[in-house]
Amino acid sequence: MDIVWRSLPNLAPLILTMPPDAWTAELRTNLTSLDNEVIVLSFVRPLVPADFVRMLLYCPRVKSFGGFENRLKDTIKKFNLAFSAVNALEAFRPASSLLPNVEYLEWDYFQYAFGECGLPAIHFLFGSRLRTVHLWPMGGPCNANNVYQTLQKLTAKSPALQHFSLSSYSKTAELCELMPALLSGLPQLVDFKADIQLNAAALL
Q1: What per-residue confidence (pLDDT) applies to 14?
Q2: Strand ranges across the sheet with 163-166
Q3: Which CATH number fits domain 2-203: 3.80.10, 1.20.58, 3.40.50, 2.40.320?
Q4: Regarding predicted confidence, which is higher, 135 or 204?
Q5: Which 3 state secondary structure label does DSSP give 162?
Q6: What is the DSSP letter of 112?
Q7: Which superkingdom, per the lineage (predicted)?
Q8: Is 119's pLDDT higher than 80?
Q9: Which partner from 72, 89, 114, 136 sits 20 to 30 angstroms from 204, CA to CA?
Q10: Distance (Å, rounded) from C-alpha 111 to C-alpha 64?
């Protein structure tokens, strides 16, 4: 069982463990997906603690989340999420982190449906054992404030992070100015990559 759940391409396998009356699946054309058609998962009612009972049996087993390699080797790669579904998980989750033992996390625009862009509230995936994070919130203009709030949560919940990369359309002056303070909250960081401009002092 640990081997089966060790690596997940997205949140779909966990959502599918929830009661079938809580979610729905819709077939859509998705130009950003590895397949021309994808199944988009969304919730049809507010979530309650009982909806998470089965999911919480598997969440602690997840060590690697997201990433191109996970999508290629997993048959569930055709599943994407509605943007609202991610935010619903954050709003109704019964624990601070749904993936308390995750060590590698990659979030990109392949995770959710075409036409829905930005960065949802994914900090419920962050945990104290997280060591590597790649964020690619592309697919459309991404709100700089959402990125900043997400990074604040990252430094608070995953202070032992060692590898971090960020690619975002939010190349705003505000985000560039705030980044040094965020990086200072990651004392064990050894590798940082971003497509925003930072001066040398910000990395010292």
Answers
A1: 95
A2: 7-8, 64-65, 104-108, 132-136, 163-166, 191-194
A3: 3.80.10
A4: 135
A5: coil
A6: B
A7: Eukaryota
A8: no
A9: 136
A10: 15
